[in-house]
Amino acid sequence: MNNSRTRAVITGVAGYLPEYILTNEELSRMVDTSDEWIMSRVGIRERHILKTEGEGTSDMAAKAVERLFEKTGTKPEEVDLLVWCGVTPDMPFPATANIIADKTGVRNAFGFDINAACSSFLFSLITVASFVETGRCRKVVLAGAERLTMYVDYTDRATCPLFGDGAAAVLIEPGDGEYGLIDSIARADGAGRKHLHLKAGGSVMPSSIETVIRRQHYIHQEGQAVFKAAVSRMADTSAELMERNGLTSETVSWLIPHQANLRIIDATGSRMGLPKEKVMVNIDKYGNTSSATIPLCLYDFEDRLKKGDNIVIATFGGGWTWGAAYLKWAYDGVRDVSKGLTGGLD
Ligand code: UT7
């Protein structure tokens, strides 16, 4: 538990979704599936896909970051750290964070990428919080953005309904201790990697004509093994975090779960004793966007957040990686009809 006076506080959030929407109806014309199966087994109705030629993860992230600057009145030159997290970098190097910084005019900062699969945003929030708590940084941009559909095999019905593209970014600043990141639990267990990974394109199996022919550049997921591990670890960790912070189902205002499957989300909420109204869900609109799911929930629900709300974030991803974080929210989100969702510290 962090007892220092300075805490890392989220002071703004913005998101961006690419225009093209792939519906279950369209998917069911591509593979042997149905809206009924996908809705009842996973809870996804549609997902966004980046189709613009020549654009990648950094372009979506840059649009979210530009909106974040506009909403929060932040000047790019004030930012001293910019981190991108996720599994779909623009290219192996340079870091996607550097490319986003260049596209958004961030010139006085350092930056780097963090990959913890679907737990990337949670792990990155914990990481950048340390820079803020120690006083090393005063304005940090953390972007969770993915072009996840580039890894999706649209001939494989077991995986192709699940994933989508999208981006969201948060601004993180120091606060006096009452609000912000209060506590977190993060775990990684590489033994889980065999159940969820991407085989080719790395140093063990570099890209070749053969890897393309063998379809090894697509997500390999053993759904049931991942499902079981996700349910138990997300629920256990969230319950442990609640207990050690004296939180109850009454005092928790919101659960923000990673959006991979509505049944996993429901199981985590039930284990925490939370009614459905306290659980953020937008998987129906976006599918699983990996590092972007948590900040996209913040973005979608921002106008319902109140200063002082107790928020628990819970994630699970390939690796295995999993964890939970407890935040005390720092501002009342308001809906500005002319600009979309907006909020700010008073
Ligand atoms: O974000 C990273 C973490 N990822 C996750 O948390 C994902 C965890 N896993 C899951 O969410 C679920 O396991 C899936 C959504 C991937 C699959 O759901 P499931 O209930 O575990 O289905 P299953 O793989 O056990 O398949 C059940 C049946 C099979 O048919 P038979 O063998 O029973 O005849 C599949 O062939 O459903 C069939 N099936 C489909 N049917 C229609 C699998 N995919 C589809 C589909 N449409 N798209």
| Strand order in space, largest sheet | 1-7-6-4-5
CATH topology of the largest domain: Peroxisomal Thiolase, Chain A, domain 1
Q: What's the CATH H-level superfamily name of the largest domain?
A: Thiolase/Chalcone synthase
Main β-sheet description: 5 strands, mixed
Top-tier CATH class of the largest domain: Alpha Beta
Tally of helical segments: 10
How large is the share of residues in beta strands? 25-35%
Low-confidence stretches: 336-346
Please tell me what the overall shape is.
Answer: globular
User: Could you tell me the number of beta strands?
Assistant: 15
Bound molecules: oxa(dethia)-CoA
Number of domains: 2
Helix-strand pattern: EEHHEHEHEHEEEEHEHEHHHEEEE
- Based on helices, strands and strand pairing, what is the structural class? alpha+beta
Overall mean confidence score, pLDDT? 95
Helix content bin: 25-40%
Oligomeric status: single chain
- If you compute it from the alpha carbons, what radius of gyration comes out, rounded to the nearest whole angstrom? 19 Å
Instruction: Compute the separation of the termini in Å.
Output: 26 Å
